[in-house]
Amino acid sequence: MRRPTASQARAPATVLALLLIVVLVLPPLLSAYWIDVLTAVAIYSVVALGLNLLMGRVGLVSLGQIAVLALGGWVAAKLAFATSIPFPLVLLIAGLITLVLGTLVGLPALRLSGLYLALITLMLAGAITVVLSTTNFPNGGPGFLGHTESSFGNPSVRRPDIAGSDPGYFRFTVIVAAAMFALALWHVRSRPGRAWAAIRQSEPAALAAGVNITLYKLWAWALASFMTGVAGGLLAGSVGKLYTYQFPTRDSIILLAVVLMGGIYSLWGAVVAGGLMKLLPALLDDWGLPADLLTILFGVGVLQVLLTAPGGLAAQVPKDLARLGGALSAVVRREAARAERAPTGPAPREPAQ
Description:
Elements (H helix, E strand, L loop, with lengths): L5 H24 L2 H27 L6 H18 L4 H19 L8 H22 L30 H23 L2 H11 L1 H6 L4 H27 L10 H13 L5 H19 L6 H15 L4 H30 L12
Helix pairs in contact: 1-6, 2-6, 2-9, 2-10, 2-11, 3-4, 3-5, 3-9, 4-9, 6-9, 7-9, 10-11, 10-12, 10-13
């Protein structure tokens, strides 16, 4: 058994320290607006994590994750308005229901791949959007569906009792997101992760090695759908009221772009993707820059990933920083060596003739 390297041994402590800083230090320092933005970043990091697992670990392309997110929010809103069960249980049920639906959607993945799979998932996303537009989201009206045409005066989706305020709900969201990342990491480092890696490299070779391709492909779809459904429940509690225009099909394309830019081979890439999806637009708006600039930035970013940095920002930025640090340290060492060779005292005078 290989011993972990020094960097691998320090990784859990580093992640825990970052988590404590985000949960305890950031909320008192930020306004309510930026708290809402960072809450959205945490939620969409979980959504990006599901696509990250499908693409980076199994080699499956899905353009329907935003529709799964809408389903998770729809189920969570129905349960929150129609029942009094605790909010964490609402999240769990929403994740389990989207898990079942995602497994059904994953059935075509057993026969399709690449562009054909992407088109199928995109069409399913469009179909789900049409269904949600017909049934509408619950908004506290009468009956189990709980929808009224006017949203004025209707209650918001309830939050957990311990996280009623915006900072409290931000902390709750970050903790749930961390649990989803821990679940994904456990899968990646255990038997499913090894099976997914074999399937991504070569399905015939994986089949020859005894890997149950059908089982592990459906497993990946189910896990990604579960995490996205939980994110949908978190989104319902964050925004309070859900509408169909909050889940446009084009967001599935944007999600694919930011996941590629963040990095599909690292779980940190999902965090970067969440920031690109929600934090970057907020920053551009705060700086007074046009929103159309995002399209240009995402287009350039995807081209850069496809041409020079297949690992995305999560892999490329540490390498570039290491190279920059090495170059700066080399310059410092050369200057120090030059200073040591230089004479320290006054030059001796020549004797008079």
